[in-house]
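Entry 14. Structure prediction run on the chain below.
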Amino acid sequence: MATKDEEVMTVPDAPGFLPAAEQKKWQATYSAAFKRAQSEMPDHAHQWRGIAEREANRMLRAPEPKSYEEAMAMPAHLCSLPRIPEDAHPVTGKPKLTDTREVVDGKLRLVTIDGRKHEFAAPEKKSGK
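Output returned:
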């Protein structure tokens, strides 16, 4: 069984579709959770990486928007889905975030990064008269 001294932490790359600032936050969260797991569970080295990854991936959960305004105020990476661009290789192409917010028939529709679908009535546009 590996001990704290035998297990060396290697922080994996964050999901490539996240913005650079969010990638750094993901890696910092992973590192902190890994170190915490090492100190709290020194005899369970086989669980450290899983605990750290689950903790870091929690930032990929989007809060439940309750209104049009909340949905529009969400950071772009939380209401986007990773997609491989059409001009990229289907296997080796890097995914890019595609914002899912769109207004159709007077309703804002969006899918959050965790796959949940939401729909809100969009405010009516004021006429310019």
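The first strand starts at residue 80 and ends at 83.
Filed with the rest of this week's runs.
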